[in-house]
Amino acid sequence: MNPANIIEKTTDFGEKYYYTKHKSGLDIYVIPKDFKTSFAMFSTKYGAIDNCFKLAGEENFHEVPDGIAHYLEHKMFENEDGVDTFSRFAKYGANANAFTSGTMTSYLFSCTDHLKENLEILLDYVSKPYFTPENVEKERGIIGQEIRMYEDNPGSAIYYNLLEALYEKHQTRVNVAGTIESIAKITPELLYDCYYTFYNFSNMTLCVSGRADMDMVLDVVDRILPEREQKTIIRNYYDEKPEVYRKRVSAEFEVAKPMFLIGVKDIDIAPDGAERMRKKAVMGILIDMLFGSTSPFALDVYESGLVNGFEAGYDHGRSSSIVYLEGETDDPEAVYTKFLSYLEENRKAGLSREDFDRIKRASYASYLKNFDSTRLAQTFTYMIHDDCDPFDYGDTLKSVTFEETSELFGKLFHEEYYAMSVINPIGK
Amino acid sequence: MNPANIIEKTTDFGEKYYYTKHKSGLDIYVIPKDFKTSFAMFSTKYGAIDNCFKLAGEENFHEVPDGIAHYLEHKMFENEDGVDTFSRFAKYGANANAFTSGTMTSYLFSCTDHLKENLEILLDYVSKPYFTPENVEKERGIIGQEIRMYEDNPGSAIYYNLLEALYEKHQTRVNVAGTIESIAKITPELLYDCYYTFYNFSNMTLCVSGRADMDMVLDVVDRILPEREQKTIIRNYYDEKPEVYRKRVSAEFEVAKPMFLIGVKDIDIAPDGAERMRKKAVMGILIDMLFGSTSPFALDVYESGLVNGFEAGYDHGRSSSIVYLEGETDDPEAVYTKFLSYLEENRKAGLSREDFDRIKRASYASYLKNFDSTRLAQTFTYMIHDDCDPFDYGDTLKSVTFEETSELFGKLFHEEYYAMSVINPIGK
Prior knowledge:
The structure is a homodimer of 428-residue chains.
Chain A (H helix, E strand, L loop, with lengths): L6 E4 L5 E6 L5 E6 L5 E7 L7 E4 L6 E2 L4 H8 L9 H7 L3 E6 L4 E7 L3 H12 L6 H19 L2 H13 L13 H4 L4 H11 L5 E7 L3 H11 L8 E3 L12 E6 L5 E7 L7 H19 L4 H8 L3 E10 L4 E9 L2 H18 L3 H17 L6 H10 L4 H10 L2 H11 L5 E8 L3
Parallel strand pairs in A: 3-9, 11-15
Antiparallel strand pairs in A: 1-2, 2-3, 4-8, 4-9, 5-6, 5-10, 7-8, 12-14, 12-15, 13-14
């Protein structure tokens, strides 16, 4: 590796990262921080939505069963020598974990010592698939149980019900764990096919924050990663119309009070990473102005006793863009009506410039606080997978104008984009 | 201020703090950290348990209504000029808050900028009591509402019910917010009496972590704190027998599943801070060995489906020492029986040295991780109020032996020290 290929980037608030593209195709980021805790995340741009894909040069798309990315994550902890991955990490005092989302599978650990040894373990186990008919079969029961657990969980049900109401076809509606039916179709061959497609290193990232330096990380990567063909993946996502598929969806669970989750669907997603980053920044400010913890809406529903535990959030990424509002209430339709009238009032009165300035400053402060977190490598991974440079996000935030925030407000909120998912107590 | 009075203390893992006793009597700690976020906490050693006290030289104890420390905290946000304290902080981008516990009242903020200005506001508003018959009366309704909210909250009820089962007389059983009856007796005079007793600066601490230096902090303290008499407070806590007062207590709430909270009462609390710190370290390791997330008990109740969301914890401080186990279960008595038999098995087999070594290392790693937290000043405050030096806790942890852990196991767990608080679904 030629050291000239290592890019150093700094910010005016005293942060620094090193980046290089390894010869294997892997994107490596090292963010040195004087923390006691080091944190590493080895991730593939592969999640529940990637169920239809082909390689450059192939004629036909592969359609694979829902839940296979998550199944694969489970199976990566299986080792040919039978040694338990977690106990390998425990030997060097690391806390290890893994997760699968709609767009990503990540393997991670944190540790206060032995970063090098733990990094070796991380790269080693994730680069060694070991799927046999027996161990794949064994996992089916375990994952089946996990699926049933989620089915019994009102928090999970309300979320997937909303996605299925917002989207008619797009894979964002796919449950990360799949279904009992879909996982029944998973075989070692399919797992290997997905593994060598999506775990080719040019589709992966390694982010390390803490007491790490690029030389050490590169030394480990050079030694541990096997030779592997780099591949160009073409993903097929199903088209969606701008309007929601269904306006309402509800289910009954053993809960004390009804729960609601309102979603706003937005299909205006730019292909360009920098453009998406800008919209993400604007959206963050807008949602906080309208529905943050000190917004008139949040204070009003709280003080009137209409809603308990109100929270709002948003997601604006490569594949989906949604605004969320959730809480507990005795009367979900009253919350929905209030949501409509509140937006109407704001439309008439216009947004407040003073609120905008205050929230924009607070957003920048929140952005800065990311750099105090020992999970910085995780924040980095999320942004990098979305083609954003984490060091540019602050400047983008600073440059957001009141006018573009007002413009987004006008575009985002229209009744045909809203759906509400409700969980009712059984028999009430 | 003579700079020679500033003590600098360092650790072998690269941390540093500065300490001085200000002429006002205030203990000041500054912990410089290269974080974006600075954090300050101004606290008094005064909480719900301090309802019976006198000053050195006084003959009789003052008995004051339950909930007065918390009432006082609320009233500190009242300013003579009518300006809202939170908006003063908001002007300088700080997040401010306050809380009252059994043994402490704390006023705090975090900020990414303008630390000096925010520190000025903090010291200013907490050192200016302003209680009038009108504003004290107005607060009664607000706090009454808060009390009713807690009464309606199963998580709060299960906790206070346990304390009332464990303790017959000791003030640890006092509800922080008091009762509707007790707060009815609170007057401006009583508030001023408590304020000038417990907010005399020799009973207070100021901890600042982040981009802070002692010179700046001392400059602010010198300018803002008013002259105030230093007082020696004598607290009267009621004696307790070692056994629990009641074995079982239960209540009905609108919950989907019964909740349990098992408590282990321990009245063996050393008057010496260093001794308490040592027992705290031993207790932490012991409880994690027996009931931590990877303990046989936790895995067993989880895998058998007996308990959802199992958690264990402990508290070992100046005034009380309790071990907690909590979770949701269909059968609280089955959990209790399992708890008994598990301890019996461990007593027979003895603790595992291997587990001890592993958990001790993990405890030390957790201790180190505190220094990565922007809320470091809060961790400091807790330990200082308990007469522990946070920098000595790591060495204490390292020196804990398997033998003393086994010894504490033998002393702590006996059935006469156990109580269980249960919340049942209504009508089930």
